[in-house]
Amino acid sequence: LRFDEKVRVVVFKSEVKGVFCAGADLKERAKMDDAEVGHFVKRLRNLMDEIAALPVPTIAAIDGHALGGGLELALACDLRVAASSAKMGLIETTRGLLPGAGGTQRLPRCVGIGLAKELIFTGRQIDGQQAFSMGLVNHTVPQNNEGDAAYQRALTLAKEILPQAPFAVKMGKLAINRGMEVDIASGMAIEGMCYAQNIPTRDRQEGMAAFREKRPPQFIGK
C-alpha cells in the first residue's frame, strides 16, 4: 500500500460482526516466556508504527469492540469512526499489563494527558458516543442492522478525501504528524519544507487553472 500510487485512502475494518479488534489472545500470551512476550509486543509496536507511517490518510471503522491492542490499532490511524454501541478501551491494567503498542503515547496525543491517564489507569471501557465527546473518534453513528454503520460512514469520509490533490494530502499529513512532535517554530519550518515540495507539482498548477476556468480540478497525484 505504501508504494501503490493508486491508493488514496486506507480504511481498516473488521470482517467479524461486533468486533473491530479484541486485542491480543491472552491464552496464547500465557504460554509465552518473558523473552517471547517482549519480542511479541515489539513486533506489535512495529506494526502500529508501520500503519501510522502510511503516507495516505487512514480511517479506522470501529463497528464493535476495540480493546487493548485493538484500540491501539485504531489510534495508529489518522481518523476514527465508531458506531455509538462500539466499546473501546485500553484495558491492559485490568490484566496486570500496560499498553505496549503505542497506547501510552498516541492516546494522550489524541484526547489529552488527563483523560488518557484516567482511561489507562482505570482500564475503563467507553462507548462510541463517549469516545466522540472526548475527541477519541471523529464521528459516531447509530449501528445499523448489518452491523457496519461505522464502515459506511468511513467510506463517506474517504469519498470526501478522494477528490482532493493526493500529493497535497500526503504532504499535509506529513506536516501535521512531524509538526506535532516539535515546537511551533520547528513545525513552521516543517510545513515550509512540505509546501516547497508541493509547489512544482502538476496538481498545484491544475488546481490554479481549474479555479481560473471555474471547473472542477482533475488531479493526477503528480
Would you spell out the secondary-structure blueprint of this structure?
Layout: E1 10-12, E2 19-21, H1 26-30, H2 34-52, E3 58-62, E4 65-67, H3 69-75, E5 79-83, E6 87-89, H4 103-111, H5 113-122, E7 126-127, H6 128-133, E8 139-141, H7 149-161, H8 166-179, H9 184-198, H10 202-212
Parallel strand pairs: 1-3, 2-4, 3-5, 4-6, 5-8
Antiparallel strand pairs: 6-7
Helix pairs in contact: 3-4, 4-5, 8-9
Task: Write a brief structural summary.
This is Enoyl-CoA hydratase domain-containing protein 2, mitochondrial. The chain is α/β, with parallel strands linked by helices and 222 residues long. The chain is 49% helix and 12% strand.
Structure description:
- With 222 residues, the protein is α/β, with parallel strands linked by helices.
- The protein folds into 2 domains: 10-160, 2-enoyl-CoA Hydratase, Chain A, domain 1 (Alpha-Beta Complex); 166-213, Lyase 2-enoyl-coa Hydratase, Chain  A, domain 2 (Orthogonal Bundle).
- 49% of the residues lie in helices and 12% in strands.
- The chain has 10 helices and 8 strands.
- The protein is globular and about 60 Å long.
Q: How far is it from the N-terminal to the C-terminal residue, by CA?
A: 17 Å
How many helices? 10
Q: Approximately how much helix is present in the residues?
A: 40-55%
What's the architecture of the largest domain in CATH terms? Alpha-Beta Complex
Oligomer: single chain
Q: What are the key terms here?
A:
12% strand; alpha/beta; Lyase 2-enoyl-coa Hydratase, Chain  A, domain 2; 222 residues; 2-enoyl-CoA Hydratase, Chain A, domain 1; globular; four-stranded mixed beta sheet; 2 domains; 10 helices; four-stranded parallel beta sheet
